[in-house]
Design a protein that fits this description.
Layout (H helix, E strand, L loop, with lengths): L1 E6 L3 H13 L2 E7 L7 H11 L5 E4 L5 H7 L10 H21 L3 E4 L9 H15 L13 H11 L16
Parallel strand pairs: 1-2, 1-4, 2-3
Helix pairs in contact: 1-6, 4-5
């Protein structure tokens, strides 16, 4: 298949998704770019847990100001609305740019393993970004075929820290 840069938010989601991508024939590298994660202690916990995985991981620490600027005006929206779409686009676009500049064959995201995330919205955003930058986006709905259940089993097996929210400060309000 080739090399794939997989945007990731946390070890519980990444473990299964990376495993599936590798089984599908991809050489997987994780990409941790998440300026939406608050507070900084949460961000550091998630990044540290990802280092436990047996995959290459690139971390792009950006601070939160870019994210706050992007979602300004959408703070009061419920999870799953336009603020989330803006957040997905910000993170997937950064992933695509890194993938293109670093010679990856494709990119994807593990976000679709979550039962709280709309895979068709995420995949649509990824496809649009792929067209813009000329790199394939591998559309997945990782929650299919018990993907979320498998992700949680791996999380338990490896004793990963499991967060209780997506990371966005507004999802905790």
């Amino acid at each position: 298949m080739g090399t794939i840069l997989a945007h990731t938010c946390c070890a519980p989601c990444a473990a299964y998704c990376f495993q599936k991508l590798a089984t599908d024939g991809w050489s997987v590298t994780g990409y941790f770019y998440n300026p939406n994660i608050h507070p900084e202690t949460e961000y550091e916990k998630r990044k540290t847990e990802l280092l436990k995985l047996d995959y290459s991981l690139i971390t792009e620490d950006a601070g939160t100001e870019t994210w706050h600027s992007a979602v300004r005006g959408f703070e009061q929206e419920k999870e799953g609305q336009e603020r989330c779409e803006i957040c997905f686009k910000l993170r997937l676009e950064k992933t695509a740019i890194y993938a293109v500049n670093s010679g990856f064959d494709a990119f994807t995201t593990v976000l679709t393993v979550s039962p709280h995330k709309n895979s068709s919205v995420i995949n649509g955003i990824g496809a649009g970004i792929a067209e813009k930058y000329g790199i394939p986006f591998i559309e997945e709905d990782f929650k299919k075929n018990d993907g979320f259940k498998k992700a949680m089993a791996l999380s338990k097996k490896y004793n990963f820290y499991r967060q209780k929210y997506c990371g966005c400060i507004y999802s905790t309000i």
